[in-house]
UniProtKB/TrEMBL annotation:
<dbReference type="InterPro" id="IPR036702">
    <property type="entry name" value="ComB-like_sf"/>
</dbReference>
<dbReference type="InterPro" id="IPR005238">
    <property type="entry name" value="ComB-like"/>
</dbReference>
<keyword id="KW-0378">Hydrolase</keyword>
<keyword id="KW-0460">Magnesium</keyword>
<comment type="similarity">
    <text>Belongs to the ComB family.</text>
</comment>
<dbReference type="Pfam" id="PF04029">
    <property type="entry name" value="2-ph_phosp"/>
</dbReference>
<dbReference type="GO" id="GO:0000287">
    <property type="term" value="F:magnesium ion binding"/>
</dbReference>
<dbReference type="GO" id="GO:0050545">
    <property type="term" value="F:sulfopyruvate decarboxylase activity"/>
</dbReference>
<dbReference type="GO" id="GO:0050532">
    <property type="term" value="F:2-phosphosulfolactate phosphatase activity"/>
</dbReference>
<protein>
    <recommendedName>
        <fullName>Probable 2-phosphosulfolactate phosphatase</fullName>
        <ecNumber>3.1.3.71</ecNumber>
    </recommendedName>
</protein>
């Protein structure tokens, strides 16, 4: 298996065109929120725009943020800790729209398989990929923030890529660098980066701890027929 790292919408499009399985990593917070929702047994429909989310037919819940703040009129913000405590019924249809994550997911359209990965499900995602059932080429995509690098996405991608390397995957040079950053970056750095400070300023400090905890939500969030579910 060959695994690589790329970033943003451009990286997602290129990986999809190349026929790679795409893992979209938005650690703060879309990929983490998706994992929580999938564990609750909901069907998570990612859409790029607020308008699409508002008009989506048959939605039981609408979840979204812009600039990390909850979209007015939506049921929840993009807060995994808030959603973890909420009583969402299994089988509910949840429409999700976020600043970065859902846009990158849309850019990956056409890939043979699309997964959402984060710290909370890094091991589960990597182990599923290592089986080879999703193909022998994987691209792990760090979403970033408004076109800029995001250290939390790089580190969460590194957690997935390290596990793949341990399973025998060949990593390209950029993926190796991301793994090295993951292994050497102090945890306190992520807790105090610009994204964490932004979340804390908006009252989402619980999300920072939730999103940085590794392997606490062991699901494989896979996009099938337009919705994320556990694996298939």
């Amino acid at each position: 298996m060959r695994a690589e790292y790329a970033a943003g919408e451009r990286g997602a499009r290129a990986a999809a065109r190349a026929g790679a399985t795409v893992v979209v990593v938005d650690a703060f917070r879309a990929s983490t929120t998706i994992a929580v929702l999938v564990r609750k047994g909901t069907k998570v429909v990612p859409v790029a725009s607020i308008e699409e989310a508002t008009l989506y037919p048959g939605a039981d819940y609408r979840i979204g943020e812009r600039g990390s703040a909850r979209v007015r009129g939506f049921d929840f913000g993009n807060s995994p800790s808030e959603i973890e405590a909420a009583g969402l019924a299994p089988g509910s249809v949840v429409v999700l729209s976020t600043t970065n994550g859902t846009r990158v997911l849309e850019a990956a359209h056409g890939a043979p398989a699309i997964l959402a990965g984060a710290f909370v499900n890094a091991r589960a995602v990597a182990d599923e990929l290592a089986t080879g059932v999703l193909g022998d080429r994987v691209a792990v995509i760090g979403c970033g923030w408004k076109g800029r690098r995001a250290s939390e996405d790089e580190s969460a991608a590194g957690a997935i890529l390290q596990r793949l390397r341990e399973s025998g995957a060949f990593l390209n040079e950029r993926a190796e660098r991301v793994v090295d950053l993951y292994l050497s970056r102090p945890d306190n750095t992520l807790r105090n980066n610009s994204a964490a400070r932004r979340l804390t300023s908006l009252g989402y400090e619980n999300d920072v701890d939730f999103c940085l905890a590794e392997n606490t939500v062991p699901v494989v969030s896979r996009l099938c027929d337009g919705a994320f579910t556990d694996r298939m």
